[in-house]
Design goal:
The chain has 118 residues and is mainly α. It has 5 helices and 3 strands; from the N terminus they run ααβααββα. Strands 1-3-2 form a 3-stranded antiparallel sheet. Strand 2 and strand 3 form a beta hairpin. It starts with a helix and ends in a 28-residue tail after the last helix.
Length: 118
Amino acid sequence: MNSFCVLANPLRYRIVEILASGEHMSGNISDAVIGNYGVSRAAVSKQLAILRENGWVEFREEGSARWYFLVEDVWQQIDSDVSWLRYLWDRRIGYFARNDTDPRLASTWSPWGLHTKE
């Protein structure tokens, strides 16, 4: 899942925002998100699971507590996704410095494995 899809969900965005400040216990994350959005603990757990499955967060167990933290590679993924959009922007139709004259060629590859129809 690309960075924009991950961050498009407001609960996941809030969790990432919280974890950007450092490692936090799952209960504290839940309390903060529930306070912001009025959702259940199960909803927060589901979003934490999605973040784990997509390689954005990991956790360590300390007794019965789970401490969540952002994975260092997240910043590289965000940079890569933004670079892809900058690449498309630089090659946009009508831009004097673009490298190809056929606009279809500027959008046939993406870092997410998506291809446009020609």
